[in-house]
């Protein structure tokens, strides 16, 4: 089946620095990808919809200047957490759908801001 | 606003017994998804239910969908320890592919 690869799987960064997370669809093209955030013991919450070649669409309450999304190609979307703070520590998961509509999820990125 | 309500949120299971997780949703979506998540891991797809009356089974898990009642169930038969995980249901929130997830059901299977 289709694969969505997310990198890195874990990252620790200092408060105030920026972190980039990559999400790649390995064997299909994804004009749209989604970024979710999951806090411990909670469900996945959609942060934004990443659109190839255009601006991302952010969910209410998500700061677009803090969570920069770039979808420069049909197989790659990146999420950059800028000026990270400890409260941004979370599990970030991307997803994409293939041509049949089936959804695939990346492996997730555990971000810890110290 | 689309709501997806999952219950129970926590389920302690005894090995060998049967249990059911319920997922209610507020939209007219005719697609529903079930996922499994192990600690520290991403989501593993279990079932995609595409129409009213759909029933799918894989091993000890069986999922069904009633779009008229806006209800899906995930039935676990003769629970075993390997089924310990958190289970999520999800519904299409729009036509572009974004999901609305339920809160998740944490399942712990004990001898």
Structural commentary:
Chain A has 114 residues and is mainly beta. Chain A has strands at residues 4-7, 10-13, 19-25, 32-38, 44-51, 57-58, 67-73, 76-81, 90-97, 103-105, 109-113. In chain A, strands 2, 4, 5, 6, 9, 10 and 11 form a 7-stranded mixed beta sheet that branches. A 4-stranded antiparallel beta sheet of chain A has the order 1-3-8-7, with no helix packed on it. The model of chain A has no long low-confidence stretch (mean pLDDT 94). Chain B is mostly beta strands and 111 residues long. Chain B has no helices and 11 strands. The mean pLDDT of chain B is 94. The interface between A and B is medium-sized, with 23 and 19 residues.
Indicate the topology.
The complex is a heterodimer of chains A (114) and B (111).
Chain A: E1 4-7, E2 10-13, E3 19-25, E4 32-38, E5 44-51, E6 57-58, E7 67-73, E8 76-81, E9 90-97, E10 103-105, E11 109-113
Chain B: E1 4-7, E2 10-14, E3 19-25, E4 32-37, E5 43-49, E6 55-58, E7 61-66, E8 71-76, E9 85-92, E10 99-101, E11 105-110
Parallel strand pairs in B: 2-11
Antiparallel strand pairs in B: 1-3, 3-8, 4-5, 4-9, 6-7, 7-8, 9-10, 9-11
List keywords for this structure.
heterodimer; A: 114 residues; mainly beta; 7-stranded mixed β-sheet; 4-stranded antiparallel β-sheet; 54% strand; globular; B: 111 residues; 6-stranded mixed β-sheet; 5-stranded antiparallel β-sheet; 56% strand
Sequence stretches where pLDDT stays below 50 over 5 or more residues of chain B? none
Output mean pLDDT of chain A: 94
Number of helical regions of chain B: 0
Q: Approximately how much beta-strand content do the residues of chain A carry?
A: over 45%
Percent helix among the residues of chain B? Answer: under 10%
Order of helices and strands of chain A: EEEEEEEEEEE
Largest interface: A-B, 23 and 19 residues
Distance between the ends of chain A: 37 Å
Give the oligomer, counting copies of the same chain as homo and different chains as hetero.
heterodimer
Portion of residues in beta strands of chain B equals: over 45%
Q: Which percent range fits the helix content of chain A?
A: under 10%
- Average pLDDT score of chain B: 94
Report on the biggest sheet of chain A.
Answer: 7 strands, mixed
Radius of gyration of chain B: 13 Å
Which structural class best describes the helix and strand composition of chain B?
mainly beta
Order of helices and strands of chain B: EEEEEEEEEEE
């Amino acid at each position: 089946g289709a694969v969505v690869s997310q990198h890195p799987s874990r990252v620790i960064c200092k408060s105030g620095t920026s972190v980039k997370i990559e999400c790649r669809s390995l064997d299909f093209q994804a004009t749209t990808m989604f970024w979710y955030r999951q806090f411990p013991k909670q469900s996945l919450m959609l942060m934004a919809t990443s659109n190839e070649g255009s601006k991302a669409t952010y969910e209410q309450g998500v700061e677009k200047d803090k969570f920069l999304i770039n979808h420069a190609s049909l197989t790659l979307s990146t999420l950059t957490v800028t000026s990270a703070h400890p409260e941004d520590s979370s599990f970030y998961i991307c997803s994409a759908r293939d041509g049949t509509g089936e959804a695939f999820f990346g492996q997730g990125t555990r971000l810890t801001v110290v | 606003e689309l709501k997806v309500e999952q219950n129970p949120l926590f389920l302690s299971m005894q090995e060998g017994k049967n249990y059911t997780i319920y997922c209610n949703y507020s939209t007219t979506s005719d697609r529903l998804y079930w996922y499994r998540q192990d600690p520290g891991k991403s989501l593993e797809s279990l079932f995609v239910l595409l129409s009213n009356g759909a029933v799918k089974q894989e091993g000890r898990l069986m999922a069904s969908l009633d779009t008229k009642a806006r209800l899906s169930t995930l039935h676990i038969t003769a629970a075993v320890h390997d089924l310990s995980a958190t289970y999520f249901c999800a519904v299409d929130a729009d036509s572009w592919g974004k999901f609305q997830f339920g809160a998740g059901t944490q399942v712990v299977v004990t001898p």
